[in-house]
Design brief:
By secondary structure, this protein is mainly α. The chain has 5 helices and 3 strands; from the N terminus they run αααβββαα. The protein folds into 2 domains: about 130 residues; about 45 residues, no CATH class. The structure holds zinc ion (ZN).
Length: about 240
Amino acid sequence: MDALQIFYSFREARNKDFLFLDVMNKNFNQKERDLVKLAGFFKKESIRLMNEGKLGEEHKGVQDAVDRFLEHLENHVNTRAFILEQRDYLNKLVKDNAQCPKCHTSDKLKVVGTEKNDKGWKSNRYRCRKCNIEFTWNMPNNPWHMIEYIQQILGDMQAKAENGSAEEKSQSIQAIASMQGNLDKLKPVIDAHEKDYQALQAREQEMERLLHEFKNSLMIEKIKMDTWENRQNQKHN
Ligand SMILES: [Zn+2]
């Protein structure tokens, strides 16, 4: 029997009119939601049993443990939602100003997919409904690959500037400075986010382990609570 089955049979066997965590955080995933329900139920049960004198004070620890765990989980899922929302936003940050290679307009363009080039950079694939052709835009569609793209262009431009005439050199220097300026704005934002995102991945794994442990400890607690209650019932009968 898994935890939820135990939970449902436990619930049916007892009162049917309890309410647990009435407002569920929308950031919980299904597994977390199930555990939050389970934990809320255990807490209420232990309060009820204690009020009825059917559970010893030593079980009060369950309530504190549930509260602490839920608080920790709540913080985690809220932070996760924030970082993922930020990632989603960053993912859409690069706006192509794509043009059809045939009619040189963007009027009838529609994104039909994405494509990776040999460097692994992802770009949008378009369809021009006027010319009835498809083409892949020559720039990445996301800031992660855009950074690498700009770095490569900068390298090419610097090489060109060194070998060019005086006029070419001065033009290149201006272009390089402007591009470098864009890069200097974009890169710290992406780097900072990437650090948060990597840390989140590590915490997700840790949370996965904690959820599992916590569920097990609730199950053990249930057995203890049942034993206690049965013993008290026997004493009173
Ligand atoms: Zn066209």
